[in-house]
C-alpha cells in the first residue's frame, strides 16, 4: 500500500515463517514495514519551478505580454516558497540545457512546475514551444528548432508529489494565414492527438491558457487575463490545488466575457494538496492521513467537489469517497464511499479500482468478496497503477487471498512496478536481484534500482541503506557507491564500506543538503 514499505497486510508472522537465506532482505523489509509511521515528514517540503517567457523572436512575430506574465508568475511562486528558475527569451540550446538540469533537480522536489509564455504550435499531432532563436519559417521546420511538450513533461515527471505544466502559448499562429489561430491538441481520443497521456497515479496536470483552437488574450493591461487569474488564485489560502485550477478557469471566463476558456489535461492523484495556508501541513502526511484530509476542505470547496462529481470528475468522486472513509468524521459512510468509488471505476480510474478492491477485500461498506477484490486489483494493474502491481507482486510472492505462491510471477510484477518508479517495488526488486534470483540482472542493476528508490524520497529506503547496508552484497554496495560518485554525491573509495562519507552521499542523493 502507498505510504509504507510493502502492503499493510498481516504479513509479519507469515513472512518470518517463509524466510530463507535467499529472501532474507525481503523478509526483513516485510517486518520493517509493519512499524508505525510518523504523521509528518521530518524533512521540509521542496518546491521547484521553471518560468520561461519569450517575447523577442528571430523569425516570427514578437509578443507583448509574455515576459511581463512570466515575471508575475515567478514572483507569485516565490511567495509560495518555490525555488524559481526565471529565464526570458531563451534560445534552443540554452532551453534544452536548462530543462536537463531542471529534470535532475526535480527528482528530489515534492512539487515541480513549469510555466511557459510564448508562441506554441501543433505540428503533426505534437505540441512545440518556440524559443527566441528558432529559425523555423514554416510549420515543417518547427520540430527541429523548438522544444516539444513531451520534453517539458519529462522535466517534471519524477517529482515526488505533484507535477504541473502551465502553457500560456495559445496566441496567434506565427505560421498561419489570415486570422488562423494556433492549434493546441487536447483530446487524446483524436487520432494523432500528440500528447502522451500523463499517468494518473503520478499526479501530472497540464493547464492551457485557452482550449483547442482558441486565442489566449493579452488583455488591456500589463498582464494577460490568464496570468492574472493564475497569480491571484494560486495564492488563495487553504484552496485545494485541483479546485484552484477550476477557479482559474471560471475567473478567466468572467474576465473575457466567456471568450477565453482555460483547459486542463491529465489527472492529479487522489490525495489533496494545498499551496498556501494552514492546510499545507496536509502535504507532508502519509498516504492514509492525506486521504483523510479531504475532510478538512471548507464547505464551499466540498460543494464544488460535489458539483464536479455529478459531472463524472473522477478526482472529485475519489475525494468525496475518502471523506466518507474517515472514521473520525461525522460524514463517515463507507456504503456511500463504495458508491462513489464505483462511479469512478465506471469512468475507468485505476486508483479507484485499487481502493474499491481494498474495500471488497476487507468488507468495508460492502459484503466481503475476495474474488471481486482480486478482479479490481488486476484491472487496476492492467491500467499500470503501480500500487496495484506491487500488491499483486506480494500476493504472488507471499501467498494470500487464495493466490498461490509463485516467485516467477512475483518478480514479474515487482519488475513492472519498479519500472513505474514505485519506491517499495524498486527496493524489493533490487533485493531479489541482489539474491541472484532475477534472470538477466546483476548487482549493477540492483544498485541502479536502489538509487532510483532513494531519489523518490522514501525515508525507509534511506534508513535501511544507511543503517543496514550489509543487507546487500558487497558488489551491490560498491555499485551503489559508483552510482553516487557518477552523480557527484560521493567522492570516497568504491569499496562497499558504508561509512560516514557514503551515508552522507546517500542523504545527498535523497535530497538532504548538509
UniProtKB/TrEMBL annotation:
Pfam families from the UniProt entry: Peptidase_C14, Sel1
SMART domains: SEL1
Domain of life: Bacteria
Domain Caspase family p20: residue ranges: 45-174
Alphabetical list of InterPro entries matching this protein: Caspase-like_dom_sf, Caspase-related_regulators, Pept_C14_caspase, Pept_C14_p20, Sel1-like, TPR-like_helical_dom_sf
One GO term (biological process): proteolysis
GO MF term list: cysteine-type endopeptidase activity
Name of the protein in question: SEL1-like repeat protein
Amino acid at each position: 500500500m502507498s505510504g509504507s514499505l510493502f502492503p499493510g497486510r498481516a504479513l509479519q508472522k507469515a513472512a518470518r515463517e517463509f524466510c530463507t537465506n535467499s529472501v532474507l532482505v525481503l523478509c526483513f523489509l516485510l517486518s520493517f514495514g509493519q512499524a508505525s509511521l510518523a504523521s509528518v515528514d521530518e524533512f521540509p517540503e521542496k518546491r521547484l519551478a521553471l518560468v520561461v517567457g519569450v517575447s523577442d523572436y528571430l523569425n516570427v512575430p514578437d509578443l507583448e505580454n509574455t515576459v511581463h506574465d512570466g515575471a508575475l508568475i515567478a514572483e507569485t511562486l516565490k511567495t509560495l516558497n518555490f525555488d524559481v528558475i526565471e529565464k526570458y527569451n531563451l534560445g534552443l540550446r540554452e532551453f534544452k540545457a536548462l530543462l536537463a538540469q531542471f529534470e535532475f533537480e526535480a527528482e528530489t522536489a515534492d512539487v515541480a512546475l513549469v510555466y511557459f509564455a510564448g508562441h506554441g504550435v501543433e505540428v503533426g499531432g505534437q505540441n512545440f514551444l518556440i524559443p527566441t532563436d528558432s529559425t523555423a519559417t514554416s510549420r515543417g521546420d518547427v520540430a527541429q528548432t523548438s522544444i516539444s511538450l513531451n520534453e517539458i513533461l519529462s522535466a517534471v515527471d519524477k517529482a515526488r508529489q505533484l507535477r504541473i505544466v502551465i502553457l500560456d502559448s495559445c496566441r496567434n499562429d506565427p505560421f498561419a494565414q489570415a486570422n488562423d489561430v494556433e492549434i493546441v491538441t487536447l483530446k487524446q481520443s483524436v487520432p494523432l492527438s500528440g500528447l502522451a497521456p500523463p499517468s494518473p497515479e503520478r499526479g501530472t496536470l497540464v493547464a492551457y491558457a485557452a482550449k483547442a483552437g482558441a486565442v489566449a488574450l493579452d488583455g488591456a493591461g500589463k498582464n494577460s487575463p490568464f496570468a492574472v487569474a493564475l497569480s491571484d488564485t494560486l495564492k488563495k489560502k487553504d484552496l485545494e490545488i485541483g479546485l484552484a485550477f477550476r477557479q482559474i478557469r471560471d475567473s478567466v471566463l468572467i474576465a473575457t466575457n466567456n471568450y477565453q476558456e482555460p483547459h486542463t489535461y491529465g489527472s492529479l492523484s487522489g490525495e489533496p494538496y494545498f499551496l498556501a495556508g494552514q492546510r499545507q501541513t496536509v502535504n507532508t502526511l502519509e498516504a492514509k492521513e492525506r486521504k483523510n484530509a479531504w475532510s478538512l476542505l471548507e464547505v464551499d470547496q466540498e460543494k464544488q467537489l460535489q458539483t464536479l462529481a455529478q459531472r463524472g470528475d473522477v478526482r472529485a468522486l475519489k475525494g468525496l469517497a475518502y471523506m466518507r472513509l474517515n472514521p473520525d468524521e461525522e460524514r463517515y459512510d463507507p456504503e456511500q464511499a463504495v458508491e462513489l468509488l464505483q462511479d469512478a471505476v465506471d469512468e475507468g480510474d485505476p486508483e479507484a479500482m485499487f481502493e474499491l478492491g481494498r474495500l471488497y477485500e476487507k468488507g468495508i461498506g460492502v459484503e466481503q468478496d475476495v474474488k471481486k477484490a482480486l478482479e479490481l486489483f488486476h484491472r487496476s494493474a492492467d491500467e499500470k497503477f503501480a500500487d496495484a502491481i506491487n500488491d499483486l507482486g506480494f500476493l504472488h510472492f507471499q501467498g494470500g487471498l487464495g493466490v498461490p505462491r509463485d516467485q516467477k510471477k512475483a518478480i514479474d510484477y515487482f519488475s513492472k512496478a519498479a519500472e513505474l518508479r514505485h519506491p517499495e517495488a524498486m527496493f524489493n526488486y533490487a533485493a531479489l536481484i541482489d539474491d541472484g534470483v532475477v534472470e538477466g540482472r546483476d548487482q549493477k542493476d540492483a544498485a541502479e534500482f536502489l538509487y532510483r528508490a532513494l531519489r523518490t524520497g522514501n525515508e525507509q529506503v534511506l534508513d535501511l541503506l544507511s543503517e543496514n547496508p550489509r543487507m546487500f552484497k558487497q558488489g551491490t554496495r560498491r555499485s551503489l557507491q559508483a552510482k553516487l560518485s557518477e552523480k557527484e554525491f560521493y567522492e570516497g573509495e568504491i569499496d562497499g564500506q558504508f561509512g560516514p562519507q557514503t551515508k552522507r552521499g546517500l542523504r545527498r542523493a535523497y535530497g538532504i543538503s548538509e
